[in-house]
Every structure is written in structure tokens, then in C-alpha cells.
Amino acid sequence: MKLPVLAFGTASLKNKSESIDKDFPELKQLIENMFETMYGSAGVGLAAPQIGKNIRLFIVDTSPFGDDYPDGKDFKRVFINAQITHRTGDEWAFNEGCLCIPEVREDVMRPPTITIKYYDEDFNFHTETYSGIRARVIQHEYDHIEGILFVDRLSPLKKMLIKGKLSAISKGLVATKYKMIYPQLKKQII
Description:
Blueprint: E1 5-6, H1 27-40, E2 45-47, E3 57-61, E4 76-88, E5 92-98, E6 101-110, E7 113-119, E8 125-131, H2 132-145, H3 156-170, E9 180-181
Parallel strand pairs: 1-9
Antiparallel strand pairs: 2-3, 3-4, 4-7, 5-6, 7-8
């Protein structure tokens, strides 16, 4: 089932998420719904806070980047209770977007390599190191469970330049091909 995505300006997107255990209700169904929502929105990642769940869960599938970034091929993962333990390398810019912030894309600086510990969908524990596009997408989604949006990482000048676009998004004055919930729209269209 495709789920609606919360739009920029929704207060809960700024909250740090809570850890869960293997008995979280209907976890497998939630993960399945998240993948369906992500694919239906042409995304490469989706975090539970984006669909109104304040839990430390996000998914990624970097396959769409596979032609330009070979490390993106065949990389589909579920991250539960993730903790980035190490970030290394000279930060590099990449033009990021977000399902919560449609039609806005900006260059964001991030380190190229991370080490992350997490549980997968079967609650098997992993500690892994990722680089390149994999690390980029993981860091973007990880930010969501920490209550950070990619626009929070922009310079004050960049934020000022997109302020009008962000305001329009929160009011529902943006067209998307997927369901959204807008914080300042009186009657929601889902």
C-alpha cells in the first residue's frame, strides 16, 4: 500500500526518532509499504518519519544511480536502529532532493565514507562501511531519523533563496505524482 508522504513544514519531521525492537507491530508490512511508497514516488530512499512514523527505520535502493555510479547497482537495504559511528574523507557536493520537499534540489556537502551499525529487516545485526553513492543516500535517510532535512545543511543564503518554495510546499502549492500531507493545507487531498 502506498502511504502519503509528509511535506516540508510538518513539525514531526524535526523530531529525533525512537528505536524499535523485533516485536514492533506489523514491521514486515510497514517495510513492504515503504518500498511500495518509495518506488511509486521515484525515490531512492525513504525514512519512517517521512510517512509519520517516529521510529529509527529507513530503506534505500540506489539502483537508479547504477548507470552513473557503479556502486549503486544492486544495493537495496533496510536499516533499523541505525547509528553512524564514523565518517571520513573530504566532503563532496551532490545535488540532493527529498520526497518531503518536491521540486527542490540543492548541492549538499557530505563525507564520502561512513561506517554504520544497524539491524536488517530480520533483526540481524550488521556493522558495515560504505562509500560513494551508497554512503550519500544512507546519510540523507539517516538524517531523517535524526530530525534533519537536507535543507538544514544548506548555507543561510541558499535557505533564504528557497524560502518561498519551501513555504509553497508546506501550503500544498506543489504538484506531485504521489500522495502528500501538507501541514498548512486546511483540507488534505490524499
